[in-house]
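A favour, since you know our structure tokens better than I do. It will help me judge whether the discrete encoding reads sensibly. The space below this message is yours for that.
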Amino acid sequence: MLDRLDAAAVRRWCAAGLDGLRRHQQEIDDLNVYPVPDSDTGTNLVLTFTAAHEALTEAASATERDGAERDGAERDGAERDGAERDGAERDGAERDGAELGATLRCLARGAALGALGNSGTMVAQLLKGLAEALDEVAVPDGKAFADALAQAARRAREAVARPVEGTLLSVADGAARAAAEVASGELAEVARAAAKGAAEALARTPDQLPVLARAGVVDAGGRGLCVLLDAFVEVVTGVAAPASAPAPAIARERESGSSDYAYEVQYLLDAPEPAIAPLRAALAGLGDSLVVVHVEDSLWNVHVHVNAIGAAIEAGIEAGRPHRISVTRFADQAAPHRPARAAVVAVTGAGLAEVFRQEGAVVVPGPSPSAGQVLAAIEETGAGEVVVLPNGRALQAVAAEAAEQARAQGVRAGVVPTRSPVQALAALAVRDAGRRFEDDLIAMAEAAGACRYAEVTMATREAVTVAGVCRPGDVLALVEGEVNVIGTELVATCRDLVDRMLAGGGELVTLITGDDAPDDLGAALREHLAQRWPFVEVQVMLGGQPRYPLVVGVE
């Protein structure tokens, strides 16, 4: 558990936040009815955070190259310049503070340059506020983070020409208020309070914005911010945050949206600061949803909804030099009819069941469902195309039988032969309802097959295994069904297991803790991976599965 924020934690948060947005992308898109029901908020947030993640990755690579060059120069006896000598003389705290500030600025800049749509632009402004508030702060603890959230919420409001309650702005305010009310300076406590405050503010958005109430949804951008704050809690505490503020079911009759403005215009603008106030005034007279974000120096990101495309671009030309101009016609962005495709997952454990429900799957409780139960779940989806994920060798035949019976009833059903829930998560991450059903099955099967899996359990009797003789009470680590490690202590055996799996390569590690796992198992393994495998992304989930204190996936 972190007591202070550092650059490495920011990088992990960016990766975890991007993963969360990708997993909830369709949900957030479906919530999108304000300001225009173009079903792209989730997509815009994913693309915005992808740009931020890429900026951090490029910066890390450049730092490694510079470090290698400096090392080589020093080995050759080259003279370091004065700046390097000064940097070497700073104490560790100052170096850490400078690195944190630089990382946050890089994150905010990448998001601002790649920001798309209303929500993407406002999230970029939130990140800018965090970067400003935490730049070289002496003690980046919970109190500092609470202050930074308040600064971020203010910055986001300043960027919007006409702030509207019931949007991402209200959710940001809710997070900041809840964080400020925490008496202690513990980062984990403040992070949890902020996530909870955001979730509560999100639940209130339909009461604040009638268009949301009529559609039966919460604000899409606010939901995205909740996902990001949940990811921050996971990074700080080492434990996945409980699902925040489940989105209400979407009403059958969705809000049709305003017909006042037909186009979204967005561009980067090189202009001096004095030119921005006249630009805001000109664009405010042309349309709505105006957001202008300061990226750096004389660079700005401009977003507005208008009918007069040319006039919006001309206003930018009068202010400076617009570039990377994009124009979107909302009528062309209306959500297309998607094939009625669903997923059915067999899983054991309350936490895992909730994870898969959040992924939009119908869950069949384990450990040994019948073909009839799986068939009933297929029918429950009401979909014409259904993918079944059995998550176990023994359930392959059961799933195949249920799929065959479903096909006899006119449902296109197929089985992706997953043997572990981590493989099912990998498969669901690549599903694409826009693909042909057969092609989607193949893609999901390939993703599942590329995910190596393992489980940790306890021996109940003496036996001879490929790893040696085990005795009752020993800790057994099974890699893809075969005993690979025999230990006497749970956490040490789990560390040994993940090390062995990553020795064969991997970029993403998923850790699912079980019902019998100690509370600190996920945090202990996350800390170990951060030290031993710093460039690996880590997800920790509370699965609640019996018999297996830990399930591991490596991709």
